[in-house]
Amino acid sequence: MQSITVHDLHAGRERPLIDVREEHEFAAGHVPGAVNLPMSTLGEHLDQLPAEPFDVICQIGGRSARVAEALAARGHDVTNVEGGTGEWVAAGYAVEA
User: Domain Rhodanese spans what residues (predicted)?
Assistant: First the structure.
């Protein structure tokens, strides 16, 4: 599985970012530009995934790692963000709410 750190993400990537946390978690604060597709309903929204390479993030990296593995097995070019939104916030990076 491909992975990057929150520092790599913050440095700038020209890829869509999918946040797989639940809607209430996303609403409380997320990485700017992220799109919310919760893991719990992702199977119903596979048609909304980008056709191009993309990154996935969650709160600490566990859910997004599972999603990345499953989507990579389906042929998607997907990268997990290690440490997730929690590490993004801990690093002092801005969030949108």
Answer: 11-97
Q: Which of the four pLDDT bands, split at 50, 70 and 90, describes residue 22?
A: very high
What global pTM score does this model have?
0.95
Q: Domain spans of the chain?
A: 2-90
Query: Is 58 within 8 Å of 19 (Cβ atoms)?
Result: yes
Q: What is the DSSP string of 20-84?
A: -S-HHHHHH-B-TT-EE--GGGGGGGGGGS-SS-EEEE-SSSHHHHHHHHHHHHTT--EEEEETH
Superfamily of domain 2-90: Rhodanese-like domain (3.40.250.10)
